[in-house]
Design goal:
The protein is built from 3 helices and 5 strands. The chain is an alpha+beta fold. It has one domain: OB fold (Dihydrolipoamide Acetyltransferase, E2P) (Beta Barrel), CATH 2.40.50. Strands 3-2-1-4-5 form a 5-stranded antiparallel sheet.
């Protein structure tokens, strides 16, 4: 998908993601892949999904929030908005994984949802 979206386009996409989350019904809690039902629902929207860990989370001298998010194959270091940074910081401090749902790579304003996993 396009890495640059207008605020209106991003808000519209976020509403679609939220609607998908609200309509997912999970009835199988076997040993299958975690969260596969939600991933399958998001796949119909051509949205990217990343599960990984936070290597660092902090703030620079200009006030920007910096995060290094690592998946099993790639690391992404960039400025994160405060709402997403708060989740990254909590995940780092608790040793939990993050699930980042994004419109493309998890950089810049592409992030739509950031969830801390159990």
């Amino acid at each position: 998908m396009n890495d640059v979206m207008s605020g209106v386009q991003l808000a519209t996409l976020q509403k679609q993601v939220d609607a998908k989350f609200e309509n997912v019904k999970v009835t199988d809690f076997s040993d299958g892949p975690k969260f596969q039902h939600i991933v399958n629902a998001l796949d119909t929207m051509a949205i990217d999904s990343y599960i990984g860990t936070v290597a660092f989370a902090g703030q620079n001298s200009t006030g920007a929030y910096q995060v290094q998010f690592n998946t099993s194959t790639t690391g992404y270091s960039s400025s994160w908005p405060q709402w997403a940074f708060d989740q990254a910081k909590s995940a780092l401090l608790s040793g939990k994984q993050l699930w980042v749902i994004a419109n493309g790579s998890p950089f810049g304003s592409n992030r739509l949802t950031v969830l801390i996993l159990a």
